[in-house]
Design brief:
Elements lengths: L1 E4 L2 H6 L1 E2 L5 H12 L9 H13 L3 H11 L19 H10 L2 H14 L12 H18 L4 H29 L5 E4 L2 E4 L7 E4 L6 E5 L17 E5 L15 H7 L1 H9 L4 E2 H8 L3 H13 L3 E6 L2 E6 L1 H14 L5
Parallel strand pairs: 1-5, 2-6, 6-7
Antiparallel strand pairs: 1-4, 3-4, 8-10, 9-10
Helix pairs in contact: 2-7, 4-7, 5-7, 9-10, 10-11, 10-12, 11-12
Amino acid sequence: MLRVHFSDADLARTRLCTDSDPLWDIAISLHRLQTRQGRWAYAEWHRTTRRRLREQGLERAVRNVLMPLYPRGRYFPDFLTPFQASEGLDAGLEAVLATAPRRVRAEIGVLDRVQGAPAWAGRLAERTAREEFVRLLRAYHDVAVAPYEDEVQARVEAERAARARAFMDGGVEGMLAGLGPWARWERPVLYVDYHPAVDRDLRLEGRGMLLVPSYFNLQRPITFADPDLPPVLVCPLVHEPPATAVPDPSAAPLTTLLGRARAATLCAVAHGATTGEIARAAGVSASSASRHATALRDAGLIASTRHGGSVLHTLTPVGASMLRAAARRTGTGVP
């Protein structure tokens, strides 16, 4: 169990990451490769990534170098997922390179005590060894993460839409209370279902917390082992994505394909919408909005999740792609 202690200042400084964190994506996707648990949720990714790793000649390096440093257990070194990676892959890899040798040696020592570290891992304290390691991280990212960036980002945007609704209903505390089945908010503590071998308290002490939605995280949140690092909680994703480009629902291609009401329904769902909001946006009754949403859901264009007393509809990657394509055709959105 992880107990995160919030003050009023922490609540004011708590925020949700706007993008997926590429180094956390690397770390947790490596965990996905190390277990069959939840394989059903990532079957296509797992099959395709394994094939691409073989084709690129990376399979042995991933098995012998990366997996031992990112074990699916209670600990892996914090320096592998630096806070700077929230600014992008390049910033994160530069932070890995810039890690002080003393810190690298200390965290590898913790890994060795807790999980067992490979004999060569201590060499990562040397700059040249870390440069080679960073090249491997980039190559792995290109194969296992980058091809899924659109879907990952779309899911992050959907999560932000759901959390924004919780925030509007109940402020930051409402957002924390609605995080998911893995967390329970009892002011001023967030109780988090954590690794079963870990029982700890994390006191934010006015720093706030960055919530990082993770596409590859299936069950339990993760945070840094070092309580002095900027507080981060990497959270499982449970929602489907909205689109960033939303066409005019009356745009001819979309209307011709779906009909006016369903085109309007799809556009209304772009940033998350309840059935009532769809009805108002499309100018139809609530029962008609429900039927249109069901038809789009059956076609794989939207997903529906219960949110409090209502149902929140968001786009699937297919639905998001359709809206982006329509936006490009009509010039109403960003390519």
